[in-house]
Amino acid sequence: RISLPDIDVDFDDVGRDRVLDWVSNKYGQTHVAHIITYGTMAAKSAIADVGRVQQVPLQQVNEIKKLVPDKFPDEIKDLKGETPKVNLKNCYKYVNELKALLNGSDENVSSMLHYAEELEDTIRQVGIHACGVIIGADDLTKFAPLATVKDKDTGKDVIITQYDGHVIESVGLIKMDFLGLKTLTIIKETLRNIEMSRGKEAVPDIDHISTEDELTYKLFQEGRTVAVFQFESPGMQKHMKNLRPTQIGDLIAMNALYRPGPMEYIDSFIRRKHGLEPITYDIPVMEKYLKETYGITVYQEQVMLLSRLLAGFTRGQADSLRKAMGKKIFSMLADIKPKFIEGGKQNGYDPKILEKIWKDWEAFASYAFNKSHAACYAWVAYQTAYLKAHFPAEFMAANLTVAKDDITAVTKLMDECRALGINVLRPDINESGLNFTVNQKGDIHFALGGIKRVGEGAVETIIKTRESSGKFRSIYDFVERIPLNTCNRKTIENLTLAGAFDGLDGLYREQLFGYNSRGEVAMDALLRYGNQFQSEQNMQQNSLFGALGSEFAIEIQR
User: Fold this and answer.
1) Which among 445, 458, 452, 558 has a CA at the least distance from the CA of 508?
2) What is the rounded distance in angstroms from the CA atom of residue 352 to the CA atom of residue 73?
3) At residue 161, what are phi and psi to the nearest 5 degrees?
4) b/e map 305-330, b = 16+ CB within 10 Å
């Protein structure tokens, strides 16, 4: 290739920070930097910022901001006959209320709008690119100006290039995107669940599973792809049922086709696979590279190979064509077109057919997709489908663990568990862990860490206590052994409401919120008992209360 590549690598999102630290240690602090991003002032934020400086009342500023539309109606056209871009200059031209305020008698508001227009699109702040990292062969100060900014998540100073991602290649640096992909975390968590529930020998070598597994393709063919990476949307489920994929290539193609633009080819792709529509090629020799996708151009790599086959392009020229398509650089495509037509004519092909092929490719440029990217993601999708098909409880437990802080996602996954016939058991103070786990019967135990307002530290304390001195025999035993400064009243209340103590003999959750025989709130009496017991234990004396649990009997009228 004649241009530097972008290198994208996905890591499980839990381990991404470790990768960044490793890279810095491996290549040296002065050889590694993040990439700067520049945040510019949009129309509404410009009005807000100027209004704050000029002390225009906040309510008035908010009312003025509401006059800025998200987009102009289709009936508004500029001099070129196109719908104008939303900026303050156009707003003052096409929005009568804003025009009146700009030219009105309130000088404070008028000047605010004038200054806002001047400041619009200027740089307001800098940030850190979400995943872009530069690794240089030499000290980066020899290539680009550097700066430090504070990472809002860690509070640490981070070195960044002051050139943004668009120009970093032009100074001889390679941009690498280190992305965190939660699906990889789900796969790792699933394998951990399998080992815990079925033993180490049952854990599959996930990177070397067969790509011809019937159970996995059956899952795709039936559209049972909830929680399957890239294939879980209702639209994709419908297409999977129609396509009935039988090979990994079908999944790769669908991964590339299911996006705005190429979606219109999906029905044709499905009909051609099942022999309901003839597979045609503009030039017979094109079958060599289009056969796998039933005559439909799906990937950038196919265009690269065909340009070499039809027009004798060099590898470098084919890569330039890919870049022009991938980045939608239409001026670059216009420069390449004459070379393609001329090269094709020299190879004996009809110029009219070459023009038709080029026209198709120009349309293709707006959605061209990289096959290597689609293949990687389809492989990860296949791995998740394989795990769901063969280890459904462990797979769903892993998904629930990763989504445990998102109640909407948890609800959807619980519905899927019911559809699969998997029991999700209530949280249990003696059985549940921090994450969702699977028992010997194939049931999922709800995670203690998935209970709202129950902190990770409290759960870890419960598990550590349980492992060191055995399961909890009663609610009294629990408050005697658990440090109540870590597992406080709010935590115990939320555990109770979730049913985590329901497995303890003779206890109903509503009892803890009722009154005992002394007329006290039972929870207050219980916590006082626990604190007194632990205080006595810390003083290395016999507890006066240890044998008097009945004094604090948690009884209510039932």
Assistant:
1) 558
2) 40
3) -80, 145
4) bbbbbbbebeeebbbbbbebbeeeee
* Average pLDDT estimate for 304-327: 92
Q: Is the pLDDT of residue 148 over 70?
A: yes
Give the span between the Cα atoms of 143 and 135, in whole angstroms: 11
Q: What's the first-to-final CA gap in the chain, in angstroms?
A: 79
d(CA 248, CA 283): 27
Element (H, E) at 438: strand 437-438
pLDDT tens readout for residues 151-168: 877 778 889 999 988 888
pLDDT at 509: 84
Token representation of residue 558: 């039932």
Residue type for position 272: R
Q: Mean of the pLDDT values across residues 134-146?
A: 92
Mean predicted confidence (pLDDT) in 292-319: 94
pLDDT (tens digit, 9 = 90+) per residue, 194-250? 999 999 999 999 999 999 999 999 999 999 999 999 999 999 999 999 999 999 999
CA dist 126 and 133 (Å) reads 16
pLDDT digit string, tens, across residues 281-304: 999 999 999 999 999 999 999 999
Q: What is the distance between the alpha carbons of residues 283 and 356, in angstroms, rounded to a whole number?
A: 11
DSSP states of 459-528 as a string? HHHHHHHHHHH----SHHHHHHHS-TTTS-HHHHHHHHHTTTTTTSTT--GGGGGSB-TTSSBHHHHHHH
Question: Look-up: residue for tokens 């490719």?
Answer: 361
As given in the structure block, the two tokens for residue 499 are: 């049913």
- 143, two tokens: 């290539």
pLDDT at 557: 34
Kindly list the distances between the CA atom of residue 135 and the CA atoms of 37, 70, 89, 445, in Å, as whole numbers in the listed order.
17, 39, 41, 44
User: 403 with 186: CB under 8 angstroms?
Assistant: no
Tell me the C-alpha distance between 190 and 236, whole Å.
24
Residue 60: which pLDDT band, with cuts at 50, 70 and 90?
A: very high
Nearest to 239 by CA among 252, 222, 256, 227: 222
